[in-house]
Write a structure and sequence with these properties.
Helix content is 54%, strand content 11%. By secondary structure, it is α+β, with helices and mostly antiparallel strands. It has two domains: 46 residues; 95 residues, Glutaredoxin, CATH 3.40.30.10. The chain has a four-stranded mixed sheet. Strand 3 and strand 4 form a beta hairpin. The longest helix is centred in the N-terminal third of the chain and has 19 residues. This is Glutaredoxin domain-containing protein.
């Protein structure tokens, strides 16, 4: 859990430090803008932007019932963020597994990617797909509905 918040925390701390330096140098407006940018970066790289994660076993069980894809992701992953943003509201219909919070999820990803924790890995009908195109994922989701 702590690892998921490491990058956002670093963004906030660095932004606060740089904003403080700017403020002491007589640029309070630039300091506020700089801090806002770093807080935005922290928010985008935090687990908050993603739908609530479930465990790998629970996600696979749910997927067997409703045939929706399972997305294995981790905070700070640019490709996971791209997938999440491009899916828009439909991302909430997928089953999301944070591999940093769930060791079983990390094991599924390693098994699918020759021992590497390459994310996003999307499992559709039991078959893993590494870093698929968001349009393809949206199509798979519409087929399951």
């Amino acid at each position: 859990m702590m690892r998921a918040w490491l990058l956002p925390t670093l963004f906030v701390l660095c932004g606060a430090f740089l904003a403080t330096v700017r403020a002491f140098n007589g640029s309070p407006g630039a300091a506020a803008a700089l801090l806002a940018v770093f807080v935005l970066l922290a928010g985008v790289n935090s687990p908050l932007i993603f739908p609530k994660s479930v465990g790998a076993e629970e996600a696979q069980r749910r997927s067997a019932v409703d045939a929706r894809p399972v997305v294995f992701w981790r905070p700070g992953c640019v490709y996971c963020l791209r997938l999440r943003i491009r899916l828009g509201r439909s991302a909430r219909r997928l089953h999301w597994v944070d591999i940093w919070r769930d060791p079983a999820g990390a094991a599924v990803v390693r098994a699918a990617n020759d021992g590497n924790e390459t994310v996003p890995t999307v499992v559709v009908a039991g078959r893993p797909h590494t870093n698929p195109d968001p349009r393809w994922v949206r199509e798979q989701l519409s087929r399951s509905a």
